Amino acid sequence: MMTSEEKFLTAILTQAVEDASYEGNSKKYLKHKVSATNWIVSNDPEYQNYCKMLGIDPASIRNKINERFSYLRFLFHF
After folding, report:
1. In the predicted model, is pLDDT for residue 69 greater than 80?
2. Is 22 strand, coil or helix?
3. 64 and 16 in contact (C-beta within 8 Å)?
């Protein structure tokens, strides 16, 4: 069973992944997308610590986000 802290950290990481995965064109949500993506791929110490506290390899999430962006760069040539 997860502690309250683990549930909270899981919610933060889940929201970050959802924000980074946003595919719409709302300026508000695109700002969240950029912020979440930067937080994950920049190896932010807070991100690293949250993953460590939950026993998650931070690179596994980061690699998924990077794969997604590589695919988008291929499609749209940026």
Report:
1. no
2. coil
3. no
**Which amino acid makes up residue 46?**
E
Which two tokens mark 44?
A: 């932010």
> Distance between terminal CA atoms of the chain?
44
What pLDDT, in 10s, does the model give residues 14-66? 999 999 999 899 999 999 999 999 999 998 999 999 999 999 999 999 998 88
- pTM of the predicted protein model: 0.83
Alpha helix (H) ranges present in 21-57? 27-41, 45-54
Backbone angles phi, psi at 42, to 5 degrees: -85, 0
Kindly give the interhelix angle for 27-41 and 45-54, rounded to the nearest 10 degrees.
70
Q: Are 32 and 40 in contact (CB under 8 A)?
A: no
